[in-house]
Design brief:
Vps52_C, rod-shaped, 12 helices, two-stranded antiparallel ribbon
Length: 334
């Protein structure tokens, strides 16, 4: 049976020819000189070559190897361990060669698999980049959604606030705005038209509203105050002229004053407007009306009284007129 020596250079067959053995021995001598040239290592407690090495541990290792199942089986069958070791080594070499052949046979598939794995790695890397980008986009979208939600809540709150003040502001704006229709009617239309009377009512409301705002010190009042004052002056001027003409018409001889009086009653809001906005003109018109009507009534009563006096003294009793009758019944009793 071949004996094999295991060295640092590999396996040396002890049953080989002499030439081979002499070469192996020369090789070992060279290696030994190399080992001698190397300075010894100080391994400390790990140095098992010292005299302090405990042989009991070697016995334990040997006992453990003897208890191996394969070693027990080999010892039972009486197989030479050296031959058995060589068979095992040969089997391992055969298996190694077969494995190498299988590997070489499948080298193309393995290379293809390697390329596919490399391609998959690149694809996965790109997908990882895409997913990272997608994650960052999602985070930005999430922040944008939160921002939009906050803006939505803010806009909803502002909408509710605007709806709450809408009615009040709309009423305020309607009262503050002076339409062009009012301006044209007050300036150009005659006072006898119904449209002038309607716009005069609206102007009176705006004047009162402007006064109320001025008491509250509202700045918006100054925007319309000038226009309202001009319209008021124009309306007062036209109303004064109209009423004075009607009052002066009473003074004409043989005039039925009840007709213009009824006309003035139809436009009694004119005097109410003057009394509320221009008391001086209202007092002037009232004094003029009182003076005119007092003169008219005075002339009527004076004429009436003179006519009564004239009727009284036209037929005067004389001596022939019987003023009373004597009671004869009372005389007979006496």
């Amino acid at each position: 049976m071949a004996e094999t020596l295991i060295t640092g250079a590999g396996h040396i067959n002890l049953n080989a020819p002499a030439d081979s053995m002499s070469g192996a021995m020369a090789y070992l001598q060279d290696k030994k000189s190399d080992f001698d040239a190397v300075p010894p290592l100080n391994l400390g407690d790990l140095d098992i070559t010292t005299d302090e090495f405990i042989l009991d541990e070697v016995d334990l290792h040997i006992q453990a190897n003897l208890e191996d199942d394969l070693v027990k089986e080999a010892l039972k069958t009486g197989v030479d361990l050296r031959q058995y070791s060589k068979q095992v080594e040969t089997e391992l070499q055969r298996i190694e060669q077969a494995s190498i052949k299988d590997y070489i046979k499948e080298s193309q598939n393995i290379a293809s698999l390697h390329n596919q794995i490399t391609a998959c790695d690149s694809i996965l890397e790109r997908m990882e980049g895409m997913l990272s980008s997608f994650q960052s986009d999602l985070s930005s979208i999430s922040s944008e959604i939160q921002t939009l939600q906050q803006q939505s809540v803010s806009m909803n709150m502002r909408l509710k606030n605007r709806q709450a003040v809408r009615s009040q502001l709309s009423q305020l704006v309607d009262e503050l705005v002076v339409p062009s229709t009012m301006i044209s009617v007050i300036l150009d239309s005659p006072v006898t038209e119904q449209e002038f009377l309607e716009q005069l009512h609206e102007l009176n409301n705006k004047i009162n509203f402007a006064k109320e705002l001025s008491f509250r010190e509202t700045l918006a009042c100054s925007d319309i105050q000038d226009i309202v004052d001009r319209l008021k002056i124009k309306a007062v001027s036209k109303i004064r002229e109209f009423i004075l003409q009607k009052i002066y018409s009473f003074r004409k001889p043989m005039t039925n004053y009840q007709i213009p009086q009824n006309t003035l009653l139809k436009y009694r809001f004119f005097y109410q407007f003057l009394l509320a906005n221009e008391r001086t003109v209202a007092k002037e018109i009232r004094d003029e009306y009182v003076d005119t009507m007092s003169k008219i009534y005075f002339s009527y009563f004076k004429s009436y009284s003179s006519r009564l006096l004239k009727v009284q003294y036209e037929d005067v009793a004389d001596k022939d007129d019987l003023m009373g009758e004597e009671d004869t019944a009372k005389k007979d009793i006496l």
